[in-house]
Each structure stands twice: as structure tokens, then as C-alpha cells.
Write a structure and sequence with these properties.
single chain; alpha/beta; two-stranded antiparallel sheet; 12 helices; binds S-adenosylmethionine; binds iron/sulfur cluster
């Protein structure tokens, strides 16, 4: 823990990325209504990163001496769609990186369980937004409740059987108007599934990637009344109708000026929120990662993130 903190401080001082996010797959098998990946999936090139490409990229990045940043293997899309997901984790963990991921767990079958449990994965977020079949399937559109409960339960049971501590399984529940009443039930289901932690997350209204009317309708439909799970204040027009959302956390510093997000096709993106590829900062399969990182273009983009000058940053929370 202390070593990680000191490393982060050192990377900051040296201007190196303090965190890396690499996307194993840019497509998804679900259609969660609040997710931006779904809106942009037709607009952006879909793809799967090849294992050799990933390993080459790691070689480039870790050629920098004494550099060992935390790595998350997800971005847009569902990471387990990539058949080499576990091999990617293994190859990063073998090089001493701490690796995490976030998954909808629909593809966490028996074979994937074994592969992932032995891969060295440190943390696995399971995105799961409902404690009953009806609610869960209305949020995670395309998934089958019983199947995913079974996948997660079998995963933690197998981890126990093998006496493994990792990966730490964090179940992440986006609190909406339609599942808020199931929070206690969710705590109970988490116990039954054997997960290590339940994180309750507030919903982002995807103002950046769909027509305003659509985003507002989604907000009306899904934002809960409970202020503990609302990151917005409503903006109203002269007739009292909601015409926008002002984010209460918008003034917080954005860490993406010190981190890097790499898409499945090798493009460096702006951040985890740029689902629609509004910014492309070169391609790591065509140029060396560090050349891109230190390039004038990327430096300027990092500066403008800090000052929230890019159009996408102005509506972001
Ligand atoms: C885009 S998903 C990609 C990984 C994987 N498919 C999953 O669902 O975990 C990454 C995370 O973003 C979360 N997410 C998607 N839309 C969101 C929203 N509108 N507000 C808050 N979190 C959201 C998902 O629940 C998930 O935990
Ligand atoms: S499973 Fe993940 S990437 Fe897919 S639509 Fe849902 S939140 Fe988005
Ligand atoms: S402020 Fe800009 S860079 Fe930061 S997360 Fe939002 S869109 Fe991305």
C-alpha cells in the first residue's frame, strides 16, 4: 500500500502516467440503457486487442526503468469478450503490475473461472444493478439474472475451494429510481454470492453522447430522489421544466491529465468517458507509447484536461 502511494507520487513528479487503462474488447453483449458504450458502439470501430499486440505494448511501456503502474483491463465494452483476457492479465501480473477489471460476468463460465483465478488478477468489479430478476434484467439488458448469480457464486466458491484471496470481488450497483428499494436485498444477495464488497454508485446522465432530450428522459426515468445517490442538481427553464443537470462534483480535479486510456484498436483515447472517440492521440501499434506520451500533441491535451478546455470536458462530471 505504502509502496503504491510512493510510486504514484514519484510518477507524478516525473510526469509519467500514474494509472493505465487498456481495453481488451470494445464491443459488448449487453445493452444497459444508461451506458455510453451502447450509444457509440456503432460510431466507433469495434475490436478485440490481440494478445501479441498487448504484450508488445507492455514491452514498450515497461521498457521505462522502475515503472510499474496500476493497470485496469477494461474501458468501453465487455472485457471477457476477448478470449485472451486471462492471458493478458497473466502476462501483466507476471511483470509485477497490479491488474483490475470490471465485467458484467455474463461470460464468467467454468473455463473462464479457472483461467481468471490463476491469472493473478487483483480486483474484479462485477457490475450488477438489481437484486431481483425483473429489476436486474431491466438494467442489464440482455443478461439473465439466474445465470449471472450462478456465475458469480461459482467463482467465489471456487476461489474459496482453492484457498485463494484474489481477485477481490467488488460488486458494483448503480443506484437508480428503479432499484433503490432493493439495496438491502442486494446486501443479502451479495452475502449469498460470496462477494467481498458491495459498492453503491451514483448514475451518470450521459449528456455527452446522446441528444439532450434523450438524456433528460433517461434522467427523469432513472435518477433516484435520494440525494445520497444523485450527483446532479436539476437546471429548470422558465416554465419549471428540467432542461439540464448541473453536476455537484464537477469541480473535482480530473486525473486523466496524469493517466492514459488505450483502446482495443491501439488508439490512445482521452479518458474513460470518451466513449465516442472524440479525441485520438496517436496509435500505440503504430508508434512507441513513450514517444506519444511525450509528444507536443499529448502534452497539450493533458494541459487542457486540467483546465477543462475540451468540449467533452465541459459537460463531464
Ligand atoms: C462501461 S462498463 C465496461 C465494463 C463492463 N462491461 C461492465 O459493465 O462492468 C464500466 C463501468 O461503467 C459503469 N457504467 C456504465 N454506465 C454508467 C452510468 N451511466 N453511470 C455510472 N456508471 C456507469 C458500468 O456499470 C461499469 O461498472
Ligand atoms: S455491460 Fe458494461 S459496457 Fe456493456 S452496456 Fe452494460 S455497462 Fe455498458
Ligand atoms: S473531465 Fe474530460 S478528461 Fe476528465 S473524465 Fe471528463 S471528459 Fe474525461
Amino acid at each position: 500500500m505504502l509502496r503504491r502511494y510512493l510510486n504514484k507520487a514519484r510518477y507524478r513528479r516525473l510526469g509519467l502516467p500514474v494509472y493505465l487503462m487498456i481495453e481488451p474488447a470494445s464491443t459488448c453483449n449487453l445493452r444497459c440503457p444508461y451506458c455510453s458504450a451502447l450509444q457509440t458502439s456503432e460510431a466507433v470501430p469495434s475490436g478485440i486487442m490481440k494478445l501479441e499486440q498487448f504484450q508488445g505494448l507492455l514491452d514498450d511501456i515497461l521498457a521505462r526503468k522502475n515503472y510499474c503502474p496500476p493497470l485496469d483491463l477494461f474501458y468501453r465494452g465487455e472485457p471477457l469478450i476477448n478470449p485472451d483476457f486471462a492471458a493478458m492479465v497473466r502476462s501483466a501480473a507476471e511483470r509485477s503490475l497490479t491488474v483490475g477489471t470490471s465485467t458484467n460476468a455474463t461470460l464468467l463460465n467454468e473455463r473462464r473461472r479457472g483461467e481468471i483465478l490463476t491469472s493473478g488478477l487483483a480486483t474484479m468489479i462485477v457490475s450488477f444493478d438489481g437484486a431481483t430478476k425483473q429489476t436486474y434484467e431491466a438494467h442489464r439488458v440482455g443478461a439473465v439474472f439466474e445465470k449471472v448469480v450462478e456465475n458469480v457464486s461459482a467463482f467465489t466458491a471456487e476461489r474459496r475451494r482453492r484457498r485463494l484471496k484474489r481477485p477481490f470481488v467488488d460488486l458494483q450497483f448503480i443506484v437508480t429510481r428503479k432499484n433503490h428499494h432493493e439495496i438491502d436485498l442486494m446486501r443479502e444477495l451479495c452475502r449469498q454470492m460470496g462477494v467481498d464488497h458491495l459498492s453503491l454508485k451514483s448514475m451518470r446522465v450521459p449528456l455527452m453522447d446522446r441528444p439532450l432530450e434523450e438524456a433528460l428522459a433517461l434522467g427523469r426515468d432513472l435518477l433516484p430522489d435520494d440525494p445520497a445517490f444523485r450527483r446532479y442538481r436539476e437546471v429548470r427553464d422558465e416554465e419549471g421544466r428540467v432542461c439540464g443537470y448541473e453536476c455537484l462534483t464537477a469541480m473535482q480535479t480530473c486525473e486523466w491529465g496524469r493517466s492514459a486510456a488505450i483502446r482495443a484498436n491501439g488508439d490512445i483515447g482521452l479518458c474513460c468517458q470518451d466513449y465516442g472517440d472524440t479525441v485520438r492521440i496517436g496509435n500505440v501499434f503504430e508508434a512507441n507509447f513513450w514517444e506519444l506520451w511525450w509528444s507536443e500533441t499529448y502534452r497539450k491535451i493533458r494541459e487542457s484536461i486540467g483546465q477543462r478546455r475540451l468540449p467533452i470536458c465541459r459537460t463531464c462530471d
